[in-house]
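Researcher: I'm comparing several assemblies side by side, and this is the next one on my list. It has 410 residues spread over four chains. Same procedure as the others: predict the full complex and return the structure.
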Amino acid sequence: MDKPAARPKRTRIQREKRELIGEAALEVFSQHGFRGSTIDQIADAAGMSKPNLLYYFKNKEEIFATLIHRLMETWLAPLREMDATGDPHTEIRSYIRRKIEMARDFPRESRLFANEILQGAPRILPLLEGELKELVDEKAAIIATWMRAGRLKKSDPYHFIFAIWATTQHYADFDVQVRAVLGENRGGEGRFEDAARFLEGLFLA
Amino acid sequence: MDKPAARPKRTRIQREKRELIGEAALEVFSQHGFRGSTIDQIADAAGMSKPNLLYYFKNKEEIFATLIHRLMETWLAPLREMDATGDPHTEIRSYIRRKIEMARDFPRESRLFANEILQGAPRILPLLEGELKELVDEKAAIIATWMRAGRLKKSDPYHFIFAIWATTQHYADFDVQVRAVLGENRGGEGRFEDAARFLEGLFLA
DNA sequence: GCAATTTTTGACCGTTTGGACAAACGTTAA
DNA sequence: TTAACGTTTGTCCAAACGGTCAAAAATTGC
């Protein structure tokens, strides 16, 4: 069951153009959401005509789906790297660092993802209940072990992970608000470094 | 400058209907975002015809603006209540509790707000840079005092507030994801209580 | 060079959407 | 009763949108 949908063969041009469209779509979707974005906007951003774009993607839905599925992998990578045999504090610290770096370097990806979840995750709910849940179950178990061994302050490992997600992604998703509140002085690029240091202190007290 | 825009007099019916429309609009906007919602959907939800709705609100934009401005007040109320003369731990604990209760009881409001910020806060940026920043500056100063007095663990008061926002609102905005990951057993109503307890431990360590 | 194939585009279509409008309906008060 | 005012709706329109199609242009393989 559920075979990998026999990926169609693609020419070099097709791969390149699909990539180009993906980049343009990320830019547009992350700013206006799915319904708020038009195929024309994406085509413009990709420097091609609408019919040409639709030659590479069946429809708007498929562009979005391709994008968000590819994103999920990137998005989960940092958590995947968390190593049961490593030092708990080092592992958590690295995880927080990586997540903050992603918020800084890939805010569009974060916002696209946030948008999808906000709307009720209509396109990725199965992934959340499957792949994501499995991964979190696995890592939460590791964290629980660390806590039981007294190597990490005891708390609920699931909410611990949620809290790391929430706080780090906040700096991408709510960036406008963060900058508005911090103002001219502290709202510069340094805010990510400040955030990282604060979060290390918070989670590794 | 900037006079309160001379609020037009309204009949009882006008106030009631505008209230009714607001409720319907909240329901629709919070699910589909601004661009994803149609006036027809809102009119349906309010049990009236589209032209009738447009008799009470000039256009879609005005419905949204009215809604989100009214929301800001509700949204900031908990922070406003934080009292400099109170016991730091009690004050912070109450704040977290109230924010979690809001995530549980008013998730639509939270999502609407999140949506607006995600899109770059086009309609409320001035509010963020003005009223919100002032309030946060004031409360951050209080927290800083508490920290300097050794009555609260030292950290950056601004990022401290951000972290409380992020973690509490996460349970409204990312509710689908939270429930997907927690699964059948722990994803029930108890999750808010679990979250509150976890967050108290996290922020009041 | 040329035929087959892939890529690109202008023109077009049906639907949805925000919004305008005038006519109808209901209510109130003289 | 009726005039005035507030409320409601059916109808309509122009713009925007997702998507199609046939034909032109570019590329590839021989």
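Model: For your comparison table: The radius of gyration of chain B is 19 Å.
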